[in-house]
Amino acid sequence: MAGWAFGGCLVILAAAFVTDLRWMRIPNWISVFALTTGLLARSVVSGGHGLLFALTGAAAGFAVLLLLHFMGAVGAGDVKLFAGIGAWTGIWFTLQVIMYSILFGAVIGWIIVLFRREAAGRIRSTLSRTAGLLLLQRPALLRSSAGSEVLRFPFMLAVIPGFLYTYFCF
């Protein structure tokens, strides 16, 4: 990825990081700004090929995060923001950022669970729901129990390291 695209996207991610940490949401204006500037920048630099590059990246980022949103893993702001990330960085870089962000998110989630000393209960609950699914073959058993709290934290805590890792290591 070009250095100018990295810098432009990083500025947008910094704004999203601040709002996500502070209010646990990413405002639409950040996502719209990311998408439009990514489309414009790529179009100006590379013409029609750049526009296609940005559109496919935006579609990939949006589609994958939309699936994660439907599963309850991320918020709607993250979905829209990843369309903007895709416009700046293209399909392959965006998919790598998503993969590494999920991995960093899993690590952060486990750190939170261990810090709260909830690991044993969460593991027991996950194993019992999985066993119930396998034995009874009812997908509804995978949903969170009424008494268990869903672990929430700002996904940007994982996106920033995922973005940087992708850029500097690949």
Automatic annotation (TrEMBL):
Residue intervals of the Prepilin type IV endopeptidase peptidase domain: 10-109
Species annotation: Paenibacillus typhae
A Pfam family reported for this protein in Swiss-Prot or TrEMBL: Peptidase_A24
Family: Belongs to the peptidase A24 family.
Keyword terms of this UniProt record: Membrane, Transmembrane, Transmembrane helix
Transmembrane segments: 26-45, 52-71, 91-115, 150-168
Record's protein name: Prepilin peptidase CpaA
PANTHER family: PREPILIN LEADER PEPTIDASE_N-METHYLTRANSFERASE-RELATED, TYPE 4 PREPILIN-LIKE PROTEINS LEADER PEPTIDE-PROCESSING ENZYME
